[in-house]
Structure formats: structure tokens, C-alpha cells
Amino acid sequence: MLILAGSIGALLGVIALVRHVGRNLAWLPEVQRKCVHIAIGLYALVLPWLFDSAWPIVLLILIALALMLYLRTPASRTTGLGSTIHAVERRSFGDVWLALAIGFVFLRSGDTYILYGLPVAVIALSDAAAALTGTTYGRSRFQLEAGVKSWEGVVAFFAVTWIVAMVMLLLLTDVPRLNVVVLGVAIAAFGAVVEAVSWRGLDNLFVPVCIHFFLAGYLYATPEALGLLALIFFPAVLAAAMLQRRLGLSAHASRAFLIAIFFFLGVSGLFGTILPLLVMGAHLIARRRNPCRGEHPDLDLIATLCGTGLIWYFVGESTERSGINLYNLAMTGILLAYVMIALGCDRRWALPAYVASLALYAGLIAVGPAYGRWVLWANWIAALSLALVLVTLLARSGWTERWRGPRIAAVASIVPMTAYLTQAVFR
């Protein structure tokens, strides 16, 4: 408890110190913000050695989240400590995403420190290097839906990540040296692409989580396997760039869709990727026939799908019971909603779309892994969940004009998550 209290005090002390020094030396707001970012990331690296159980770290992250939200209050962000990290004018929850990412990779890594330490070190050092390089030396800029980034920053991210990855892999693992070099390049390249397509501070979540899963899957992969992955990934990037106009996507959105597909393949395999792919296709059709008034609907959908997948993954890991089938039920509900939106929410198509969704879900259950079937109490759970989505959409069709993705996902997840948690607790 003393270490826990000292950690909170140290966090506040660092923010106050950076604010004081930044004012005296006339630091740019971005420099102050990144100094705090680096300090938090470096301190997070030693958390597994400070505590002998998980609950203090979870409690520390929850307290840090509450503190970050307080620093966002108008009084704090104008004249208080919050001005240190929120003086930069941007719509970003990067501080919140960083705390959540640290908690996720810590709980997911177990006793394998490299799966925790390397992702946290990358987001602490490489992300700061990219931001400061881009701010100071960035000349070749590319547009995102929510701002701009620079190629100089991307190069800085790649270089720092490669160095950090090789050093940590050499010191903390028994991976052969040739593999260290190749794996370091792969991690740096993949991380740089993820960082380049992230927006509104979501790189603080996406980068460490994606690198964590990449490491978990390829830590001891052979150079040949990594080379094959590169032969698949980079042509896919080129294909996305060539198809973006036909699909009506921006360059940023097309790359984000591609990263999301690889993310789902890496986390849940083909069985957990089929429905997100169908949702993406239905979204592209619905966006043309019945566009919403959201600012960036393509990116909102990607964030929604990835966030929904991470929540289900985290819940399944925490309770040690597979939630793959009920995760797919939630995704089926999202798919049904986008299909109905593409059809103009025409009531004549409601029953055929409902029956088709039930049949699709039943087919996935039939061919899916047996370990996930325990969560299906009866077919009426799927029927109830999809009916709730359909009734909500037909009753309030204008409800999805804004924040379409998050709202649909919330409704589609109510019944599956309730069923899952009920069985996880009482079984």
C-alpha cells in the first residue's frame, strides 16, 4: 500500500515538475506532454518487480484513470496540473488509452515479461520520438481524418523501435541472434504502420496491444516464417491502396481496415475474423446507401470492432472460459444492423434478414471449435439477441445517424455479454 501511495504521489510529482520546468524553459506543450508520457511508460516497466500480485497494479491503473479524467476538467486543464498534458489542442484520450493498454498487456502477459515490457517500452519511447521528431523536423506530411502526421516521425518510430526491440530481446529472451535482428525489423515495421494509421491518441492503445499479440504469436518464429508474413502483409498494403478509390475509402481508412483484419486474424484466427469482415463489407454498402452524420464513420467502425473484440478477449481470459461463440453472436447482431441500414430499414426485409442472420450464426456454431459451445444455453439466446437489435433499429432508425458503430455494438452485446457473465459466474 505504501508503494501504491508513493506511485500516485510520484505521478503527480512528475506532472508538477514538468509543468514547472516547462514554464521556466518555455517548452512547447507537445514537449511537456511527451515528457509526462515517457515518465509514465518508464515507470510502468518496473511495476511487475514492485508488486508481488496483480491487484495492486490493477488498483493503481484505476486510480490513474480517475486522475487522468480529473485532469481533463476545465479548471485543471486551464490553470492546474492538467495544462501540462492537455495544453495541446486536439481531441484525444491518449492518456486514458495508455493506462488501459498498460493494464491489458500486464494482465495478458503473465510471467513472460517480454510480452509486457517490450510493448510498454515501445509506446513510451518510440511514440515520443515520433511525435517530437515530427513536430520539430517534420516536412513530408500525410493527412489523417483527424489530423496530420509526418514521414519523418514514422521513420523515427521505426528506428527507435528496432533498437529497443533488439536490446530487450537480447537481454530478456533466448531468441537466436539472427532471429533477434529479423524479429526486431518485423516489430518495428508493424508497429510503425499501426502508429501511422492511429488517430485521436488511439496509438497509445493500438500500438502496445498489437505488438503484444505479434510477440505472443511470433516470438520464436523462424526467419522464414517472418519473411512469409512480410510477403503477405506488404502486398496487402499495396492492394488496399489500389482498391481504396473503388471502395470509396481514404488512404488512411483503407490502411486502418487492413490493420484491423490482420489484428483479428492474429488474435482470434479465421473463425473470429469472418464476421468482422462481413461487417466491414456491410458497412461500406450502408455508408453509400444510407450515410450517417458521423465525422469519421469508417474509423469509428474500426475502433468499435477492435474495441469489441478486445473486451470479449479480455473477459474470456479473465474468467478462463471461451467466449468465442457469444462474441460471434454480438458480431452477428452488428452485421444484421448494418444490413438493415443498407436496406433502408425497410420492414419488408426485416424477417428475411433476421432469419438469414440466425442461419449464419447457426452455421458458424456448427463448424466452430467445440471448446466454445458451452456458452450456448439454447438457440433462443441467439434469437433474443438478434431480435433486440432488429427491434431497436426499426423503432429508432434515426438513432444510428451519429455514432453508428458504438451504438449498434452496445445493443448487439447486451444479451451475449449477459449470458456469458451469468454462466461464467454460476457455472
TrEMBL record:
Signal peptide: none annotated. InterPro entries: Dgk1-like (IPR037997). Keywords: Membrane, Transmembrane, Transmembrane helix. The chain crosses the membrane at residues 53-71, 113-132, 153-172, 178-197, 256-279, 299-315, 324-343, 349-367, 374-395, 407-426. GO terms for molecular function: ATP-dependent diacylglycerol kinase activity. This is Phosphatidate cytidylyltransferase. It comes from Allosphingosinicella deserti.
